[in-house]
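Quick one: structure tokens for this chain, please?
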Amino acid sequence: MIEFELNGERVTEQAVSPHITMLDYLRTRKHLQGTKEGCGSGDCGACTVLLGKRSGEQVVFEAVNACLLLLPMVHGHHLVTIEGLTSKSLIQGESLHPVQQAMVEHHGSQCGFCTPGIVMSLAALYHQNELILKDSALEALSGNLCRCTGYRPIVDAALSLNDHKADKASCAPVMAEAKVFDPVNQISTAPLLAEATEQGERAVYLPKDEDTLKQLLSDLPNTTLWAGGTDLALDLTQALKPFGNIILLSGVSELHTVSEEARTIKIGAGVTYSQALETFEKQFPSIAQLTHRIAAKQVRNMGTLGGNIANASPIGDTPPVFLALGAKLELASLKGHRWINLDDFFLGYKQTQRQTDEYLRQIEFETLNEHQHLFVYKISKRKEDDISAVLGAFYFDVDDNQVIQTARIAYGGMAATPQRAYALEDKLVDNVVSEALFETVSSELDSIFSPMSDVRASAQYRMDMAKNLLIKSGIALIAMLNGDTEEGI
């Protein structure tokens, strides 16, 4: 059985498919049809809801895509839909939520299909209690598509919220009054939900600690590990792929930690992009800028760094970055723990060194000193909410004489796996930094990579971009060595 709160009401479910998405559950089981189905892949934002999770003794709400969220993932949490923004219905005289009122006053809705998701994204922004600027409004809306309004009236509505003096507790009591609670099925190797199918029983497990996770993986090897699920969910919603047993990692608290000791940073595999952003902003401006361009905010609130690596996609945004940083991975199982260089982790397309009874525990890498520099560049058709065609990450350690001591060059989108260009690194080391050096070395990329052509880019375009990005990193390095300290993408 699972237990959660939906719009302030306690809900328990037992006789339901363990693989049902929250979007399907809301619309077909609860008949809360304000949450719309548009793309079913986390791109359009029409299904945006607010998910509230424990943070100490408080509940913190974030915007997420209901189409990517499995129902069992809300066990022990709070969920708010468009219907739950106010405590009473309009028929009973309840006033509109400030975001809804602003959308009305600024004509932010036309056909209305996308409007509930837009309202929920702006509600999440509104309840952060921060001054809403145009940039923050655009970021909050980057995962919400609208074909009618052109966005200007929606942004106007968002900016007008700064003038709204209403008590935020009174305008969204369901959120303000949300209390942390301990649900049933706290720590158990028994399934959270299960059902019998023609192919046999399938179940979803939600371990609450690493010991339980290790035991489950030992008992159920080859079970699908599901972290944020922002990519795996597409197999359900787009490919209609049947899954067997699933182990959800979202409840394992040990996987959600970030630690800094001296120059070493360790990030748990379950840390989301949004949770890691503060660390990146402090230590790695170029990674922070990249993070803002990874999908939409709803996806960044769910997707995890560990999942992005373990998924082993050749176009994942963060693996090339961690390759350039020389990161290490900790893999764990009931048999013990082992460390492996990220360079050695990827074996082939969607293939890794992880054994069937192992899980990725954490990522370890070092911060930069005054001689070390990192540049990250993402090429995609759209600036916001798009997948990379090519991503280049470039690390250089340069001495006081501007001689390169160490170079690490990594690309995504250029091979079947995220991959380093070792031969080019060797040609850069022990040379004085110059634009001519980078232009010469970049010409040898043809002998290392054979990129493919697909809907995002042709092979030639990818090769040209990879060369240009390497040259760009050299130009940026020269600028930094000459006193310009800005890193960027």
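The chain is about 30% helix and 20% strand.
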